[in-house]
TrEMBL record:
Name of the protein: Uncharacterized protein
Signal peptide: 1-22
Keyword annotations of the record: Signal
């Protein structure tokens, strides 16, 4: 009897727990052209924050740059324009969707490269 009520309590906790963010970066292709605007698309859940900062990162050598602040998450896509000097060229880059003005990572892309 105790096990049954414990199981019921656990199931209720799981059902009542708010869902985690579900931003998901759509398939990332390599970016061709460091001076070429790049399209980024994603999926989202109704519980996701309405905006995020788009951050370009690489672990080695280290690189981190906000390339699009306060992106409208409800748009499901955006075009990122390179800043003066263009995007960096190399391999092992990822995009992170980071809570706007914060540090919480909401989603991360697979690795891709940026060619000249």
């Amino acid at each position: 009897m105790y096990a049954r009520s414990l199981l019921g309590a656990l199931l209720l906790m799981v059902v009542m727990t708010p869902s985690a963010n579900a931003y998901e970066v759509r398939r990332m292709d390599d970016w061709k052209g460091r001076f070429t605007p790049q399209d980024v698309a994603w999926k989202r859940a109704a519980t996701d924050p309405p905006a995020f900062d788009l951050v370009l990162i690489r672990k080695s050598p280290p690189y981190r740059q906000i390339i699009a602040p306060s992106v409208d998450g409800t748009a499901l896509r955006t075009r990122v324009h390179p800043r003066k000097g263009g995007f960096p060229v190399g391999t092992n880059f990822r995009l992170q969707f980071v809570e706007a003005g914060g540090s919480k990572i909401l989603a991360e892309s697979c690795e891709f490269r940026i060619t000249p």
